[in-house]
Amino acid sequence: MTPASSAQAPFQNKLLPLLLLLPQLLITVVFFYWPSVQAVQQSLYIEDPFGLNSEFAGLANFTELFRNSSYVDAFLRSLFFSAAVSGLSLGLSLLFAVCADRVVRGATGYKTLLLLPYAIAPALAGVTWMFVVHPSIGILGRALVAMGVEWNYLLNGNQAMALVIFAAAWKQISYNFIFFLAGLQSIPHSLMEAAAIDGAGPGKRFRDIVFPLLSPTAFFLLVVNIVYAFFETFGVIHAVTSGGPAKATEILVYKVYSDGVVGLDIGGSAAQSVILMLIVIVLTVVQFRFVERKVHY
Amino acid sequence: MRSFIAALSLGCAVSVSAFAAPVEIQWWHAMTGANNDRVNQLVDGFNASQSDYKVVATFKSNDYTELMNQTIAAYRAGNAPHITQVFEVGTATMMAAKGAVKPVYELMAEAGEKFDPNVYLPAIKAYYSTAQGKMLSMPFNSSTPIFYYNKDAFAKAGLDPEKAPKTWPEVIDAAKKVRASGHACGLTTAWVTWTQMETFSAWHNISFGTKANGFGGFDTEFKFNNPTIVKHFETLNEMQKDGSFKYGGRTTQPEGLFLSGECAMIMTSSGFLGNAIKNAKFNFATGMLPYYPDVAGAPQNSIIGGATLWVMGGKKAQEYKGVAKFFTYLSQLDVQIVNHQQTGYLPVTIAAYQETKRSGFYDRNPGRETPILQLQNKTPTENSFGVRFGNLPKIRDLIMDEVEAAFAGKISVKQAMDNAVAKGNEELRRFERTVAKN
Amino acid sequence: MVENRPLATFFAHLVLILGAVIVTFPILFTLLASTYEGSDVASGRVTLWPGTMGLENYWLALTSGARYTAQNPAAHMLLNSAIMAVTIAVGKIFISLLSAFAVVYFRFPGRMLCFWVIFLTLMLPVEVRILPTYKVISDLGMLDSYAGLTVPLIASATATLLFRQFFMTVPPELAEAAKIDGAGPLKFFWDILMPLSVTNIAALFVILFIYGWNQYLWPLLITTSGGMDTVVIGMKKMIGGDDTQTDWGVVMATTILAMLPPIVIIVVMQRWFVKGLVEQEK
């Protein structure tokens, strides 16, 4: 990839562009590269909480992680969690977008309502859903219990997982909906009409025309949703389940926090940070190639 | 950059020292509501009583774990407060941080302030002292788990509302009767590890870990996978099936189940009393923790929770003098009495307790004496001083992970306790390794 | 749609109504709960009919905060959130405009290096390197300050990428013409490029404002004195800690107050926001 197409760049200064870049470079180096280097460094040491003494441990923190089933579990759990959040959120928003594309009356009203979750902080999204489904406080939770359902996400890991998946997916619906709707509305009308004249029904039209044209959007959204589910859902989990019950909702980003900030395991937490950084860099490269491809069409 | 600022402020300090500005003492705490008001009163009282020192109290977080981590992070960054409030399970971590903390006995001796650890309730003194009986931190707000029950629910179930069940068989029987009378849930418990494991072990005089529950050294190992605890949790697990016991969460969440009237009995901190008086829409009363009569030596004595004040290391001698003066101020009898009566925490000194009793306070406020009677029930044994393990906040989480798995029916109780012991021991070894050289 | 199918349209409406209910229900329920007394909320006595404590809860929340936890009036926390959100939004937009301009309109040694240094950070959320970053902030003495809250979050490449892509769609003739007229690069930037970017800037402002407003883990670690709490953190802190009770009515009122500004911004600036989001994906 290249920073810009060669047609641009008419100005010939040497110093000015560096000055223009300076603020961003400075912030990036101080708050991104420096901490990253520190994370790598800390991940090679075992240290007491107060930093009174530390001993070089080589890769012990990393081998410890993979020896320890709880990290591998958290890893697999994160994969499941992000797949579930992405799937649920993308599915629902595509459905809403297809419907919103269809209706004329009240479309603006629906759209505005569907945008609301975007405005709400993950932590607040978690708390509000918790309120609705809490077994002894929430209106839905109480109704479930009254109906004799064994509903107690404080103890039932699967229910807790379902709850955080739902709250996290709910929050992401707006974002996906906007993109899908924009994608649908950019499909040329003439194309659809031609297909309809050829006798293709709505289902066939969706399969043959809409789906292929939407797939770049869908792919882009998939990457965004995976990143969202991996990292930005910390607030939901922290506010609703704190990773419990019995670690059922502990995903990687939560584990970094709880091992480092609560467990005071500086080295282990830093090792997890390093692994997460590698994951993100891979995702960034994937996203970049994709973004670049989109730029040139 | 910081050194530059430090130099700058040093310059300022030199230039204004002619005016003898009071030396500032930073105090971080986690006290909220009425307790927060009390902290501010204490600080104002001390600052008004003299002009050499000025204590500045800062509320940092309502969560002890977070406060402790903030303190540690601040220490690493070189800007720790002089005084910080640490909950009892953080004791071992703080004790091991030689150099990062200043033991209180040392602080008081160096500053020439009078300090006698024997004025404190034995249970409190034991918890925060070295094996040689030297106090490491300043007792401040202590609590202990007690038993609360809903009198109305008891009456409805045909039980005597004036009589708290004393033993576990009685509690179980009451829970089943309450449940049979149409009540949603019989019993719940907050702070499961603190009330049903750590305190439960002390109350039954059984060992929670080797080396006198960690008081005797860092090379301690957990022993809570013993038959008594396993049987106890199997009983609770069994009770879940008919709703006579309900698990409501790891920390304070179950208190909501009691307050809403859903569960008729709860075991939780004595500090919950004020909240219950204010918000319960039913009649309730308190009692001592239940025990299993077939366990030899039960009931022994309960152990404390709550927090103490730790002094951080690396400060100036003059500042330490101020901290010592402040602690002397806190130790005054009338201050102690107000602390106890106004906040709902225990009296930490024997004198404050006796004075409060003499004044008839406990007759006017039934339930306020229960926790003290329970703590003072017998002379502490090595199983009932308390628990002192490194990384205990994290270990509590590990234990709860396993307990929740057992309550959810994924593994057996025995398996859960064995796993928790194994994982807890790993954590203890990691702690031992990091503090070995301190 | 192509053909008129009343049944399909009816179903579409049905799905959308259902969607709207799912999307708004927790918000509505929180709104309802905020009009009840705390103990009623805790005992699950909230119904679909508003309670009578609404005014009192909101008044308490705004002026003094929850009764049993730290006395932190929401009004002050809202101000902190606003400062944080606006600083992050303006800061990001400002540095991104400059660096995108430099990357697109100049050839200079080290250009590729600068480009990659910036874009490697594209998707790396602060959560991933939270503890080391915390240490950096504390080494710089920026804990508990607005600078510590905002500056590190300004270091992100998303806005730069967006402006870069936008600048690349600007016809190169414009810059050539400006050069022929003897305008320097900064004059060109200010007189021609900026007016063209207004839409993008407004759209980004909405997105970044919400991003800043809704931050959670970062302020949770960086600010520890009560006076610095943002409203999202303040709300979480009101939910009982150790030995304290939760004043649920006030918590719910605070939650609603915390949601309001971003919701208002989204609704009012809907067009910009949608455009801005979709622009990013070009």
UniProtKB/TrEMBL annotation, chain A:
Q: Gene3D superfamilies per the record?
A: MetI-like
Signal peptide span: none
Alphabetical list of SUPFAM superfamilies matching this protein:
MetI-like
Task: List the InterPro entries hit by this protein, alphabetically.
Answer: MetI-like, MetI-like_sf, UgpAE/MalFG_permease
Q: Which CDD domains match?
A: TM_PBP2
ABC transmembrane type-1 domain location is: 75-287
Primary location recorded for the protein, binned into one broad class? membrane
Transmembrane region positions? 15-34, 79-100, 112-132, 160-182, 209-231, 270-291
Q: Where in the cell is it found?
A: Cell inner membrane; Cell membrane
Report membrane topology.
Multi-pass membrane protein
Q: Which GO terms describe its cellular component?
A: plasma membrane
Q: Which UniProt keywords apply?
A: Cell inner membrane, Cell membrane, Membrane, Transmembrane, Transmembrane helix, Transport
Output the Pfam families linked to this UniProt entry: BPD_transp_1 (PF00528)
Which family does this protein fall into? Belongs to the binding-protein-dependent transport system permease family.
- Subunit structure, briefly? The complex is composed of two ATP-binding proteins (UgpC), two transmembrane proteins (UgpA and UgpE) and a solute-binding protein (UgpB).
Q: What is this protein called?
A: sn-glycerol-3-phosphate transport system permease protein UgpA
Tell me the organism.
Elstera cyanobacteriorum
Automatic annotation (TrEMBL), chain B:
Keywords attached to this entry: Signal, Transport
Q: Which InterPro entries does the entry link to?
A: Bact_solute-bd_prot1, SBP
Q: Where is the signal peptide?
A: 1-20
Q: Name one Pfam family in it.
A: SBP_bac_8
Q: Does the keyword Translocase apply?
A: no
Q: Does the keyword Cytoplasm apply?
A: no
Q: Which SUPFAM superfamilies match?
A: Periplasmic binding protein-like II (SSF53850)
CDD domains from the UniProt entry: PBP2_UgpB
The places in or outside the cell where this protein is found are: Periplasm
Q: List the GO cellular component terms.
A: periplasmic space
The family note in this entry says: Belongs to the bacterial solute-binding protein 1 family.
**What is this protein for, i.e. what is its function?**
Part of the ABC transporter complex UgpBAEC involved in sn-glycerol-3-phosphate (G3P) import. Binds G3P.
Q: How does it assemble?
A: The complex is composed of two ATP-binding proteins (UgpC), two transmembrane proteins (UgpA and UgpE) and a solute-binding protein (UgpB).
Q: What is this protein called?
A: sn-glycerol-3-phosphate-binding periplasmic protein UgpB
Q: Which organism is it from?
A: Elstera cyanobacteriorum
TrEMBL record, chain C:
Q: Which GO terms describe its cellular component?
A: plasma membrane
* Localization, UniProt: Cell inner membrane; Cell membrane
Which family does this protein fall into? Belongs to the binding-protein-dependent transport system permease family.
Quaternary assembly: The complex is composed of two ATP-binding proteins (UgpC), two transmembrane proteins (UgpA and UgpE) and a solute-binding protein (UgpB).
Tell me the keywords, alphabetical order: Cell inner membrane, Cell membrane, Membrane, Transmembrane, Transmembrane helix, Transport
Q: Which GO terms describe its biological process?
A: transmembrane transport
- Tell me the Pfam families matching this sequence: BPD_transp_1
UniProt main location, coarse: membrane
Matching InterPro entries: MetI-like (IPR000515), MetI-like_sf (IPR035906)
Q: In UniProt terms, what function does this protein have?
A: Part of the ABC transporter complex UgpBAEC involved in sn-glycerol-3-phosphate (G3P) import. Probably responsible for the translocation of the substrate across the membrane.
Its gene name is ugpE
- Membrane topology type: Multi-pass membrane protein
Q: Which residues cross the membrane?
A: 7-29, 82-106, 113-134, 146-167, 188-210, 216-236, 248-273
Does this UniProt record's set of keywords contain Cell wall biogenesis/degradation? no
**What is this protein called in UniProt?**
sn-glycerol-3-phosphate transport system permease protein UgpE
